[in-house]
Write a sequence for this structure.
């Protein structure tokens, strides 16, 4: 019986000895410092170098058990007190605020941009100096993970939209010029795509065009080209055009990570939508003909004043249009404008058309044109 008791005592002694030493013969120290409850903020966007907008930020450590010389540690790196000589060149510093009784009322750390240049996580804890190491405590607090998210996406701007005029019931190919447009497709997961979205709003009708889901739509950092379908140009008025950038993506393997930045361009650009052909001033000058030359052309009018044939700039050529004004017609007549310089397939001519002339009753209209696709087997040159 005595041998058995002696054996138990030896075994217990061995267990306690093993618990107090590691493989290197060093004594393990239990945390005996403060208790951190939460960080504020708990995450921040990364600020890649050169970080001009956010050279540093203040991290507030909330908890209990802090003392006058508590030091914050960031990823194991000790942040010296801001009042110490070692704070000058430090990438982080500790700031302790005391009341009249030397009790800590606020503990913060100033974290430089060098420590948040890359997305990821950092471990934050505190250390109370002067701990009694003989009792097996090391003065360290518990640790809390701080998240450094992806950098924020920029907010887009829109400087111009061309053309600035559209006709009800006709599709419109527009070019939006600005800055900070995004075009970062995901390699496999479509939800990870970072692409700007074009917004077209006309009355209660709203259209959102995103590259890769709507064609034809192309995008660069400064320009978006897209075609607004005729179904979204269904009433006269003023359409607004904006560009939206999504927030940056959260870190895929970090719970609680969020994106930031992005947003909608302001102020919105505008496009006039009307039932008649767009005036020359609202169109960009064509490559082969000047705006002034088209404006100087005299329209052809039928004897009763009902029909008007005229030249206006299209995209990118001058075209000939016919306007039925319904002058002198029954009340059931509805005014409308038709494109005359059109191919058999209904497309605008691929060249400039000019100088329309009309018979007195408006039944016959003639004009000259450089377009070779209005008539089959047309010879080269103006017809």
């Amino acid at each position: 019986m005595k041998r058995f008791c002696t054996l138990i005592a030896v075994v217990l002694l061995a267990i306690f000895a093993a618990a107090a030493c590691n493989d290197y013969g060093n004594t393990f120290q239990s945390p005996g410092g403060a208790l951190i409850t939460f960080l504020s903020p708990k995450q921040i966007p990364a600020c890649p170098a050169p970080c001009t907008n956010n050279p540093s930020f203040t991290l507030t450590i909330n908890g209990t058990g802090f003392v006058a010389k508590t030091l914050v540690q960031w990823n194991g790196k000790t942040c010296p007190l801001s009042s110490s000589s070692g704070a000058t060149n430090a990438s982080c510093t500790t700031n302790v605020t005391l009341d009249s009784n030397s009790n800590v009322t606020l503990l913060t750390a100033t974290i430089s941009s060098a420590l948040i240049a890359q997305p990821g996580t950092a471990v934050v804890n505190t250390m109370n100096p002067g701990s009694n190491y003989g009792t097996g405590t090391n003065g360290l607090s518990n640790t809390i993970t701080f998240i450094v998210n992806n950098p924020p996406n920029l907010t887009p701007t829109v400087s111009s939209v061309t053309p600035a005029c559209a006709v009800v019931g006709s599709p419109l190919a527009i070019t939006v010029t600005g800055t900070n447009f995004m075009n970062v497709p995901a390699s496999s997961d479509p939800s990870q795509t970072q692409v700007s979205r074009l917004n077209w709003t006309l009355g209660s009708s709203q259209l959102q065009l995103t590259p890769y889901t709507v064609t034809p739509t192309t995008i660069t950092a400064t320009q978006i080209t897209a075609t607004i379908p005729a179904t979204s140009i269904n009433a006269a008025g003023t359409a607004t055009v904006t560009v939206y950038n999504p927030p940056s993506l959260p870190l895929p393997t970090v719970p609680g990570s969020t994106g930031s930045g992005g947003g909608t361009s302001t102020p919105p650009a505008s496009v006039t939508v009307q039932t008649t052909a767009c005036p020359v001033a609202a169109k960009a000058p064509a490559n082969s003909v000047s705006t002034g030359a088209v404006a100087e052309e005299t329209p052809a009018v039928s004897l009763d004043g009902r029909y008007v044939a005229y030249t206006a700039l299209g995209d990118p050529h001058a075209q000939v249009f016919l306007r039925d004004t319904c002058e002198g017609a029954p009340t059931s007549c509805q005014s409308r404008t038709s494109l005359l310089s059109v191919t058999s397939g209904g497309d605008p001519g691929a060249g400039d058309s000019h100088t329309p002339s009309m018979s007195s009753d408006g039944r016959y209209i003639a004009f000259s044109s450089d377009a070779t696709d209005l008539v089959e087997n047309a010879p080269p040159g103006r017809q």
About this structure: The first strand starts at residue 35 and ends at 40. The chain has three domains: 14-149, 157-274, 280-369. The chain has two helices and 27 strands.
